[in-house]
Amino acid sequence: MQSENEVSSCLLLNFLLNCFVRSPSWQHWLSLPLSFLLLLALGANTTLLITIRLEASLHEPMYYLLSLLSLLDTVICLTVIPKVLAIFWFDLRSISFFACFLQMYIMNCIFAMESCTFMVMAYDRYVAICHPLMYPSIVTNQFIVKAAIFILARSVFLTLPIPILSGRLHYCGRNVIENCICANMSVSRLSCSDITINRLYQFTAGWTLLGSDLILIFLSYTFILRAVLRLKAQGAVAKALSTCGSHFILILFFSTVLLVFVFTLMVEKKLSSDMPVLLNILHHVIPPALNPIVYGVRTQEIKQGIQRLLKKEW
């Protein structure tokens, strides 16, 4: 005879995403800017990918890394925002167990890959400024291939336990997720099992992946700043810093929104419970929408490449 938990678990075939129940008016005004940001992110990243693919002058390691970042931004947008808009517009709150855990895995994996990509980009800038003569021999196409394999392998294997640990739990009756997305802890809290291991692994994996990347990025820019301040040629400092400016802005987008989200979770008892949900959604669409624009505006080679493509089309 099956236990009561096992019977109840078998009856649950899906979850319900219950977002902004305390602030339902948010759904109406938020759907329009979300739609705009989604179209902007998809359009800008697609344009950037096509430009780098077709322009021979952009077939360099730095732009390959930027292509990888654009691809990751596109995937994370398509993983999260269409479902959120479906909830806002058509009240399609139901999501299957498989789809929920798949979304959970993709989100965690992509964030880990983006963080590691920023770290590799910081190393690229460090070599370019601190060891310019050695740059062509260090940062090669072969280096980029190895870096991409490392980014993929590290993220895939270290984030895989997150949905596995959540999937092994018993869900006995409650299936309403107080979120717009299948965030790990939002789902795990519905379980009647002990989720201590889930919390511990989420914390450990997060600080191991994102924390180590941020430390290495900080060290890279510390060495870069020290090297730049030693430059005595007129205009050399401004030129050196301009090559790092776009990358540094992208890191600020990624880390600032993430840190605000973490801080909001820490003080959620003093704020509306919908605030962390809102920040979580925005973190999946604002950086992807702004990243390619920042590089497109600040990088002369990309601007010229886009202009040449547009002239060919016309």
UniProtKB/TrEMBL annotation:
<keyword id="KW-0812">Transmembrane</keyword>
<feature type="transmembrane region" description="Helical">
    <location>
        <begin position="143"/>
        <end position="165"/>
    </location>
</feature>
<feature type="transmembrane region" description="Helical">
    <location>
        <begin position="30"/>
        <end position="51"/>
    </location>
</feature>
<protein>
    <submittedName>
        <fullName>Olfactory receptor 56A3-like isoform X2</fullName>
    </submittedName>
</protein>
<dbReference type="InterPro" id="IPR050402">
    <property type="entry name" value="OR51/52/56-like"/>
</dbReference>
<feature type="transmembrane region" description="Helical">
    <location>
        <begin position="95"/>
        <end position="122"/>
    </location>
</feature>
<dbReference type="InterPro" id="IPR017452">
    <property type="entry name" value="GPCR_Rhodpsn_7TM"/>
</dbReference>
<dbReference type="GO" id="GO:0004930">
    <property type="term" value="F:G protein-coupled receptor activity"/>
</dbReference>
<keyword id="KW-1133">Transmembrane helix</keyword>
<dbReference type="GO" id="GO:0071396">
    <property type="term" value="P:cellular response to lipid"/>
</dbReference>
<feature type="transmembrane region" description="Helical">
    <location>
        <begin position="63"/>
        <end position="89"/>
    </location>
</feature>
<dbReference type="GO" id="GO:0005886">
    <property type="term" value="C:plasma membrane"/>
</dbReference>
<keyword id="KW-0807">Transducer</keyword>
<feature type="transmembrane region" description="Helical">
    <location>
        <begin position="207"/>
        <end position="228"/>
    </location>
</feature>
<dbReference type="GO" id="GO:0004984">
    <property type="term" value="F:olfactory receptor activity"/>
</dbReference>
<keyword id="KW-0472">Membrane</keyword>
<dbReference type="Pfam" id="PF13853">
    <property type="entry name" value="7tm_4"/>
</dbReference>
<dbReference type="InterPro" id="IPR000725">
    <property type="entry name" value="Olfact_rcpt"/>
</dbReference>
<keyword id="KW-0716">Sensory transduction</keyword>
<feature type="transmembrane region" description="Helical">
    <location>
        <begin position="248"/>
        <end position="267"/>
    </location>
</feature>
<keyword id="KW-0552">Olfaction</keyword>
<feature type="domain" description="G-protein coupled receptors family 1 profile">
    <location>
        <begin position="44"/>
        <end position="295"/>
    </location>
</feature>
